Amino acid sequence: MNENAFYNLSYGVYIIATWDGDRPTGCIANSVMQITAYPAAFAISISHDNYTNQCIEKSGGFVISVLGEKAEPSMIGTFGFQTGKDVNKFDSVDYDVRGDMPIVKASCAYIICKVISKMETDTHTVFIGQAVDADNLIEDEVMTYAYYHKVIKGKSPKNAPTYRADAKAAEAEIKENVVKEDVVKEDVVKDAIIEAAKVEKYVCSICGYEYTGDVPFEELPADYTCPICRQPKTVFNKQS
Question: What does the record give as cofactor (predicted)?
Answer without folding.
Answer: Fe(3+)
